[in-house]
Structure formats: structure tokens, C-alpha cells
Write a structure and sequence with these properties.
- The protein is of the alpha/beta class.
- Helix content is about 35%, strand content about 10%.
- It has one domain: TIM Barrel (Alpha-Beta Barrel).
- It has helices at about 5-10, 50-65, 85-90, 115-120, 135-140, 145-160, 185-200, 215-225, 230-235, 265-270, 285-290, 300-305, and strands at about 20-25, 70-75, 95-100, 125-130, 170-175, 205-210, 250-255, 260.
- An 8-stranded mixed sheet has the order 6-5-4-3-2-1-7-8.
- The two termini are about 20 Å apart.
Length: about 300
């Protein structure tokens, strides 16, 4: 059964947006890493990057409307020239800022002061750490990634992140090592906290578990190994109607690197734009038009609604 039909069978109506609380902005696909599970297929050779004019339009749409949070992602969002401007101006406006970081970016050229910048701006950090064991992380993200990740997590702890300060939250993101659903988030968080504390003295605020989405580089892997249909069947069979109330697309507006508007970052990668009756570019943004809009869905959406959900 198609995902759209599954939603209607569960909710008796199509999936619709509620209040838009978060403006999620993909600043580009350029990244210092090429992780195997990356849904945008980010990497050093990717050239897609949001220009300054579009970034200014993003800022105006954010500060002139009742968004609570600016959520910056990529690629490595820190590589975009407008990244620090967006962070600083959003914080001046008194809004929350989330940066989705891969942790190794702190070791790149011109990033020497990045950790202190984050602390001074009180940016909420969501950091990728697919597992707490070195072999598992390096297998997915590249040799040496784990050691760099542990080093920067220690530094962030020393700056106050992930400790007792509510203004410096540090959350980690777990991804399965392959064609598996994530285990229960609460139990895995206890395990992560115990292992990282015992091994390195590292603390963090929360753990988020995400199912690998059947798009981007992970989809390429599934196709090469003739496992795409099998994985899609697994996701569909694990559909949980209880996740529909909390899926992120109902609470966010996503802006692609080129200014186009989407219901989520996954739709953005697939070019699945917002419904026809709302603006399609940040230059024409209208907050009221996005409330109650019909969410654009396809079968990849099973990834966000399988098991405990991934939003």
C-alpha cells in the first residue's frame, strides 16, 4: 500500500501541517565527510551552496514570522559563508538556533573558534554519532572519525555543553548500521550515556534515534545490493499510526539551498516541493499560507513512521 493510502486509512484524511514552529534551512550539500548513510549524499566535491541573497531572504522570513527555532543543516552547514550571520542574527532576535553538526568539522581550516562561537551564541547542538564504539562509527563515517568526535565532545563538555546548563544542550544522533530499525530511544540513550561516561568522561543531553532513509547514498547502497524492495517492505510493515501526530513535517518549513520550499529535508533532496496552493520559494514566503497545508508524501515517508518513528 502506498504511504498516502496508509495515512488516509489511519487518519481518515491526508497528512496536514499544524503550526509551523521551526524554519529548517539546508545551507548546501558540501561537507568535509562522505558518510555512507547520508540522505543528501553530502561530500567535499558537492558544489550546491546557498548564496548570500537567499540567506538574507531566509533571515527576513524567519525574524518577521512567529517561528520559534532556526534549524541549520547541510552537508556541513558551517561551511556556508552565511552560516555565522544567520546564527548571530537569529539569536539577536531572541530565537532558538539548532546547528546539526558532524563533529569533525571543528578540525577543518578556519573552524578553530567554532566551539567558542557556538557557546557564546548559545546554539543548541545536534551532533551525529552513529554509535558509541569506534569500529562502528569509522565504518560508516570514515577512518579517524571516532577519535575526532570524542576529542571535540570533550571540548564541548569543557565549554559547558551537555552538562547542567539548559542554555547549552548537546544532543547526539544514532543511526542503525544498515537495514535495521532503531532500538527504543530511551533505552539506547541510557546505554550511550553510560558507555561514553565510563570510557571518556563525556556527557550529553539527549539521544535521538533515526531510521536510515531510503534516499541519497543509503538508497544507492540498497540498490547496489538488491535490497531496496526488501528494506521498503520492512519499513512499510513497521508503520506505526501513532507516529503521525509527531512527524516533523507537520511543524516545520524546510528551505533548500536554492531557496525552494519543502515540507522536510528528505522531500527537498527528492525535489518533492510543497503543495501547489502555497509559495514555492523563500522570496515569496507567506507564513499563514503554510498553516494547514497538505503535506507532500511518498513512500520514503515510511522511514519516519516505522516503529517508534524518527522525528
Amino acid at each position: 500500500m502506498k504511504f498516502s493510502e496508509k495515512v488516509i486509512s489511519a487518519k481518515k484524511e491526508p497528512l496536514k501541517a499544524l503550526e509551523s514552529k521551526i524554519l529548517q534551512v539546508n545551507l548546501g550539500y558540501k561537507c568535509n565527510m562522505s558518510c555512507k548513510h547520508c540522505h543528501v549524499s553530502g561530500g567535499p566535491k558537492r558544489t550546491q551552496s546557498m548564496d548570500c541573497k537567499t540567506a538574507e531572504s531566509v533571515l527576513q522570513a524567519f525574524v518577521n514570522n512567529p517561528f520559534e527555532t532556526l534549524d541549520l543543516t547541510g552537508g556541513a552547514p558551517e561551511l556556508n559563508p552565511s552560516f555565522r550571520m544567520l546564527v548571530s542574527e537569529a539569536r539577536k532576535a531572541g530565537r532558538n538556533v539548532i546547528a546539526r553538526t558532524n563533529l569533525t568539522i571543528f578540525f577543518e581550516k578556519n573552524m578553530e573558534d567554532l566551539a567558542e562561537f557556538y557557546r557564546d551564541q548559545r546554539v543548541e547542538l545536534v551532533a551525529s554519532l552513529p554509535y558509541y564504539l569506534e569500529d562502528s562509527v569509522d565504518r560508516v563515517r570514515g577512518s579517524g572519525t571516532y577519535k575526532k568526535s570524542m576529542a571535540i565532545l570533550k571540548k564541548l563538555n569543557n565549554l559547558g555543553y551537555g552538562m547542567d546548563s539548559p542554555s547549552l544542550p548537546l544532543s547526539l544522533v544514532y543511526n542503525p548500521q544498515g537495514m535495521f530499525l532503531a532500538p527504543p530511544q530511551s533505552a539506547l540513550e541510557v546505554e550511550y550515556k553510560r558507555e561514553l561516561k565510563n570510557r571518556f568522561g563525556i556527557s550529553f543531553t539527549h539521544l535521538y534515534t533515526f531510521t536510515n532513509m531510503p534516499i541519497g547514498r543509503f538508497k544507492d547502497f540498497l540498490s547496489r545490493t538488491n535490497n531496496l524492495d526488501k528494506y521498503m517492505e520492512k519499513l512499510a510493515n513497521a508503520f506505526n499510526p501513532g507516529t503521525l501526530d509527531g512527524v516533523m513535517c507537520r511543524y516545520i518549513v524546510n528551505v533548500g539551498w536554492d531557496g525552494r520550499l519543502f515540507d522536510c529535508d528528505f522531500n527537498q533532496v527528492l525535489g518533492l516541493t510543497t503543495s501547489s496552493d502555497v509559495p514555492h520559494h523563500i522570496d515569496q514566503f507567506d507564513y499563514q499560507a503554510f498553516i494547514g497545508r497538505r503535506i507532500a508524501v511518498d513512500d520514503h515517508c515510511y522511514g519516519c513512521t516505522a516503529g517508534q518513528g524518527s522525528s
